[in-house]
Amino acid sequence: MGYLDEEVKRLQSIIDSIEGRVRDLETKQFGSSSKKTTDEIRMLLIGPPGAGKGTQAPKIKEKFNCCHLATGDMLRSQVAKKTTLGREAKKIMDQGGLVSDDIVIGMIKEELDNNPECKGGFILDGFPRTVPQAEGLDAMLKSRNQTLQHAVELQIDDALLVARITGRLVHPASGRSYHTAFNPPKVAMTDDITGEPLVQRSDDNAEALKKRLATYHKQTTPVVSYYKNTGIWKAVDASQEPGQVWNSLLAIFDNDKAKAEAAGSGILNKLAGRS
Ligand code: AMP
C-alpha cells in the first residue's frame, strides 16, 4: 500500500471518530441524535375537550410509530369492563371532574413500562391535567434519563367547543372520533375502518361540557404555565380545520429537525474552525 493509500485510510479513521463524537454531542443536547429526532418522539397535547387532541394524536402515532396514551380512553375502558376503578371513575367523569392524580400517574407508568409501542416514544393525550401529574411525569422520565421534547397547547375559544362536543361520535375500541356534521362516518353511526358501531360519550353533552371546561381552566391552565417555564411549550391554533392543525404540528416537528441539523453542522463548523 502506497503512502497515499495509507494517508487516505488514516484520514478516514479520523473522520469516523469525529462523526461518532458529533453524534454523541447531539445526543447530549437533544436526547437523541439528529437522525433519530424524526424517529423518536416524546410529547404531549394539552387542550380543552373538543380541541382536537384525539384527532391529531393518532396521526402523530402513525408518523413516529410511537404509543398514543390517552388517559380518558384508558378510564373509559375500565368503565366498560365495570371494574371497581371504572365504577368510581364513571361518577367523576360524568360530573366533569378529575380522577385522582395517583391513579392516572399509575396508569401512564404502567404503559411506559410495559407497552412495547412506547419504545418508539409516546404521545400523551389528556395527561398531565394537573401540576402534580406534570411533576409525576417529570419524575418518571428522569428515572429513565428521558426528557420531553414538546408540550403542545391546542388553543381554542370555549364558544367553538359546544358544537364540536355535542356532535362527536367515537369508536370506543380505537378512540377514533367523528362528528355528525363536520366529519361524518361513511355509514351513519358506524366506524369507517372496522364497521363497528359508534357511540356518543355520556359526558359529551352541553351540561357536562360546562363543568369539564371549568375544570380545564382551573386545573389544567396551570399545566400550560408549567411547560411555558420549561421552554418546551408550543401553541397551535386549534380552531383551524384538522388538516391545517396537522400542518402546524408538522411545522413544529420540522423546526425541531432543522434545529438538530443546524446544531450538528454548528458542531462540525466549530471543529473545522479549530483545525
Ligand atoms: P377525556 O377523554 O380526555 O376528555 O377524559 C374524559 C374524562 O376522564 C375527564 O373529564 C376526566 O374525568 C377523566 N380524565 C381523563 N384524563 C385524566 C387525567 N389525566 N386526570 C384526571 N382525570 C382524567
Automatic annotation (TrEMBL):
Its main location: cytoplasm. It holds the Pfam family ADK_lid. GO terms for cellular component: cytosol; mitochondrial intermembrane space. Residues 168-203 form the Adenylate kinase active site lid domain. Transmembrane segments: none annotated. AMP binds at residues 71, 76, 97-99, 126-129, 133, 201, 212. Residues 167-204 are annotated as: LID. It catalyses: AMP + ATP = 2 ADP. Catalyzes the reversible transfer of the terminal phosphate group between ATP and AMP. Plays an important role in cellular energy homeostasis and in adenine nucleotide metabolism. Adenylate kinase activity is critical for regulation of the phosphate utilization and the AMP de novo biosynthesis pathways. Monomer. Belongs to the adenylate kinase family. AK2 subfamily. Consists of three domains, a large central CORE domain and two small peripheral domains, NMPbind and LID, which undergo movements during catalysis. The LID domain closes over the site of phosphoryl transfer upon ATP binding. Assembling and dissambling the active center during each catalytic cycle provides an effective means to prevent ATP hydrolysis. PANTHER family: NUCLEOTIDE KINASE. This is Adenylate kinase. It comes from Podospora appendiculata.
